[in-house]
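Re-running the complex after MR caught last week's input typo. The corrected sequence lines follow. Everything else is unchanged.
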Amino acid sequence: MPGERVLIVDDNPTNLKLVAYLMKANGYTVDTALDAETALDSIRVNHPDVILMDIQLPGIDGLELTRRLKADPGTRDIVIVAVTAYAMKGDQAKALAAGCDDYITKPIDTRKLPETIAHHLAKREIVS
Amino acid sequence: MVPRATSANTELQLLVAEDSEDDFEILLRELRKGGYVVTAERVKSTGELEAALARPWDLLISDWIMPGFGGLQVLEAIAQRGLDLACIIVSGTPGEEPAVQALRAGALDFLSKDRPRRLVPAVQRALREAADRRARVQIERELRSSERRYRTGFELAPEPLLSYDLDRRAIVDGNAKAAALFQRSRDELRGSDLLAVSPPRQPDGRSSSELVAHYVERALAGESPGFLWTFHAGGELIPTETRIINLASVGHNHAQINIVDLRERLRAEEMRRRSVELEMQNRRIQEASRLKSEFLANMSHELRTPLNAIIGFAELLHDGQVDPQSPTHKEFLGDILSSGRHLLQLINDILDLAKVEAGKLEFRPELVEAPRLVGEVIAILRTTAAHKQIRLETQVDPTVATLTIDPARLKQVAYNYLSNALKFTPQGGNVTLRIKPDGAEQFRLEVQDTGIGIAPADIARLFVEFQQLEAGAAKRHQGTGLGLALTRRLVEAQGGSVGVRSVVGEGSTFYACLPRHAIAISRSPTPIVFGPVREGSRTVLIVEDDVRDQLQLVAALESAGYAVELAESGSEAISRWRSRRYDAATIDLLLPDMSGLELLAVLRSEITNRTTPIIVITVVPDARLVAGFPVHDVLNKPLDRERLLASLARAGLPARQRERT
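Corrected-run output:
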C-alpha cells in the first residue's frame, strides 16, 4: 500500500540499507532503527503502519520489543513482520508466540517481500 | 582326727553285702559315730543284691568273702548294670592281692575289718570321689552336647567356615559351603594350607604367605583379625572378607575362619557404578548434542546474515531496480563484495576449527620479520579502525624482531585479537599491538584495548568453542563465537599459551606466548618426569592433554614438593596407572581419545591404585557430572593452585616446602 509508513529494525547496517531501499522503491515511507531503543523513539514520533523486525538485536531483542508493542493498546495494531536469520525449527513458533503477525527468514526474497507486506496491510484495512 | 564336719548329719543310703550280723552292726555303729545318719539294708545273697540294686544308693559296702558269693561278684554286678555307685570292700582276711583285684574291679577302697576306725575317712573319701566323678561325667556330657551343637552349626552355617589349626597352619576341616567355595572336597581341604587356596600375591601386591603368617601370629596372640582376602579357586579370584577367630578356649590353638564371599556384593556395586557411569555419559552426550545444535543454529544465523545482503542486493540489481549509472548501483555491488568476503571468513574459521578438532592442522615455520608481519595485519584492519576513529599502534621489541614461526598462523592470531579489540572498543579508543620477549625462549604477542572489558566470571568461557558471552538473541557483537577458541587452539598446537587480563570498563589485554623458534611439534610418547624425584616424595599423575594446563599443573605441584608424571591421553593414563602406584592423580575430563568419565571408570576398576585419590579438574563447573564416581574432589578450570593444594592436603598429602638451593 504505497504511502504507508514502515519501520525497519535491524542491527546490521547493510541489511537495513537493503530492506529500506526495497521498501522505498515500492512507495513506502521508511524509518530505520539499529536497536530497540531507537525503534521505540521512532514509533512514538512516526506511528508506523508496519514494522519489519529483526530478532537478534543488541540489548532488548526483537521478540521482547514485539511483546511490549503488542501489550500496549497504543501500538498493538501495528503489523509486525519478523525478518530474521533465525531459521531453525521452533524459531517461527517463537516469533508468532511473541505476537509477530508473520515470519520471514533471511535471505529475503526481494520480489515477494513488498507483496507480503501489502497483503498484511490490506488485511488490516478489512478488519478495522 | 576324723573330719567330722564333712559327715556330720549327712544322710547316707547304705547298701551292705555282709553275711555276718555282728560285722554289719559294727559297721553301722562306726558310721553313726562318724556322724552319718544311716539308712542301711543288708543283703546276703546274689538274689537279694540284684533286687536291692534296682533302688538308688549313696554307697555300697561289701564283705570280700561270703558264703555263695563275694566282693568281686558284687563289683561285677554293679559294673554290669553300668551303675554309678561308690563301693568299698571290707575284708576279714586282708591281703595285697585281693586289694588290687578289688580296686581293679572298681572298688574305691579296700579295708580290713580289724581296723574299723579307718572306715569313716574311707567313706568320706569314697563319697567325695563319687561326687567328683559324677560332676566330671556331667561336664563331659555337656561338652559332648555342646560340641554336637557346634558341629551342627558349623556344618549348616550359611557362610563358608574353616576349622583351622593355628600351630600347624593347616585347615582341620571345612563346612559344605567352604568346600563349594573352594571347589574342593572336604577331604582335599583337610590338612591343606590356606595358601593352597590363595594366589601367591594379594591384589595389592603383598605376599600371601607373609600375610597369612602375620594374621596367624595375631590370632595366636588372642586377637581375631578380620581382613580383605582374595582366594583363588577354580581359576577364579574370589574377593572375601575373612576373619580368623581364635577358639583356643575350646581346643589347643584352634581357630575358626569365617569367610564372606564378596563377589555378589562387588558385582552389584559394579552394576550400580556402570549404570551411574552410563547415566553420566548420557548426560555428557546430551550436553554435547545441545552445544552442537546451538552451534549449528548460530552458524545458520551467521551464514544467512551476509547471504541476505548478497542475494538481496543482487536481486535488486539484476531486476533493474537500480539505475546502473547511479552511485547506488556501485555501492550495492560493494556491499555484495564485502558480505561475500565476510562469508568466506566465516567458512574459513569453521574449516580451521574442524581441522584443529581433527588434529590435521599443519604448521610451516619459517624465518619471519616481526615488524613486517605486524604491518601486513594492521593494513587489513586500518580502514575498520579509521571508521571508528580508533588509534591503532604497534610496538615490536627489537630482541624478538626475528622469529621462526608459521607466518600465516601468527597473522591469524594477531588478526583475531585485533579485530576482536576493534569490535569491543568504542569510538575514539586505543588499540595497541605489541611483540615482546617472554623469557629467553618465548615471545609474547599482546593486544591491548580500551574497550568494555570482561567480567572475571566470563573470562574462563572466553576461549571455549561455542561459548559466546551474552549468548542468546541479544548478542551485541557479530561473530561466530569461534575466533578466540580458534586462536587458543592455534597457539596451543604450536606449544604456546593464551590468556587475557581485563578490567571491566577499562579494557582488556589478550596475549599469546609462543616459542621464538618453533621446532617440529612432536608429542613424546615416553614418560615425561619433571624434576628430580626425591626419596620419599609423593608422585601425582597428571592426565591432561592441554599444554597450557599441563604446564600450570606441573608448576603448581612441583613447587609444592610433589613429583609428577604426565599422561596426555586416556590410553596413556591407563597404562601408567597399571604400571605403578601413584599417591594421587588429577584428571581432565576432556581428553582426545576417550571421555573423561570413561577413563574414570577404567581407572577406578583397576586394582593397582584402587585407593589413590583422584581429583577431577574440569571446565564444566558442575560436580554432579562425576557424582557416583569415587573421586576425591572436583575442581574447576581455570585452576586455582591453592585449591588444588588444599584438596591434596585433605587427601592426606600436604604440600612440602620445596628445598631452595
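None of the earlier attempt is carried over here. The interface with chain B takes residues 12, 14-15, 17-19, 21-22, 25, 55-63, 85-88, 105-111 of chain A (CB under 8 Å). The beta strands of chain A are 5-9, 29-33, 50-53, 79-84, 102-105.
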